[in-house]
Amino acid sequence: ETGRRMLNTSLLLAVLLFIVCNLAQDQCTNTFDMNCDQNAFARFEDDVPSCGDYSSMVGEDVVFFAVIGDYGLSSYCEYQVSNLLDVLQNKFGPLDFIMTVGDNDYWQGDCNSMKNNIEQYYGEFYTAGGCTDPKLRMAPHNRIRFFPSLGNHDWSTYYSYGLDRIPILQYFDFLNKFNPEVNGQYYHVDPIQASESNKTLDLVHLFALNSNLAITPGMNTSAEQQLKWLQTSLASSNAPWNLVFFHHSPYTTAQHDPPGTWMRFPFQQFGASIVLTGHEHVYERVDFEDMTYVVNGLGGHTRIYNISGDACPPIEGSQVRYNNAHGAMIGFATPSKLQMCFYSVENGLTKIDEFELTK
Asked: Fewer CB near the last or first residue (10 Å), C or N of the chain?
């Protein structure tokens, strides 16, 4: 009888522990909607905090760029982030380019939605092919200063259209010339050269990956080919700064979706300088095994993910975690230093994170 009671007690404790653990996990997957209309954005460039040594207009010897992610949902939230970048440009000078870490167009990467979700905010940075509808084509005078990677909401149309007709790749048809063998779904580019800039700097090279491949049925071979391509492409770069960017975060405290463990490549060994990702609608910087990983998913989607509290303990190497408001990252590259900052629209404009990598 005593043994039976002990067994029943142990079973009860095990059940309670299981329930508590699952509740904690559920809390870490919680989301909340951001009411961006309550975040009044009114701050002039004179009030913008400096980013490292940069406190005013940058010179011709510096590459100045931005990173946004999970942004393509036309809303006041996305407007605030694009406006934030305008203010930062008024402070530091015109951006040389913008790179994105995916989910450029919600919900299904539809051709007809890209004008609302992307072009009205960032159309000045690129000339789009406009899918197959000539009415969607933009004026051809814009230089290419916009380099997207594919998120799961961009890639989801693969199942309906096939690789050759994915709307996001038809819209950004200029990506095809960077890697025509895969229709531009992943690519290596010198953004200054591609943008036909007056600058002659060879300081930054971009390596966009398609993190959807390994979790797409029948695409295992393609995922392996992408990994080999990345190793070869990084080895071919002579730039001091090689920026790798894609959607699913290999290391993240936020657990709305599990980490993209299939993207845990030997980036440092291959020659990458930093890894920039999104998918989780938070900001986080993780230093792990001699590599800096950034989760930058606060570009405009109205739903924000949990990243704090007992239910979401920081992962190993986590340096900064933030989800109070939307924002964007900017970077400054010189031959010897890569300076990066994340600014949010909280309280008008707030600098959340600042770090530098040096040679």
From this structure: N
Q: Is residue 169 left, alpha or beta, with left meaning phi > 0 and alpha meaning psi from -120 to 50?
A: alpha
Is the pTM of the predicted complex or chain greater than 0.70? Answer: yes
pLDDT for the residue numbered 14:
37
- Measuring CA to CA, which residue among 263, 296, 261 is closest to residue 281? 296
Contacts of 256 (CB under 8 A, 6+ apart): 29, 31, 280, 281, 305, 306
User: Which one is predicted more confidently, 138 or 327?
Assistant: 327
Rounded to whole angstroms, the Cα distance separating 71 from 278 reads: 10
Sheet holding 291-296, edge to edge: 187-189, 204-208, 241-248, 274-278, 291-296, 283-288, 318-322
d(CA 153, CA 169): 13
Looking at the predicted structure, is the pLDDT value of residue 1 above 70?
no
DSSP 3-state helix, strand, coil percentages of the chain (rounded to 5)? 35, 25, 45
pLDDT for the residue numbered 201: 87
Q: Which pLDDT does position 196 carry in this prediction?
A: 84
How far apart, in whole angstroms, are the C-alpha atoms of residue 337 and residue 326? 27
Q: At residue 50, does pLDDT exceed 90? A: yes
44, HSE (Cβ side, Cα atoms, 13 Å): 1
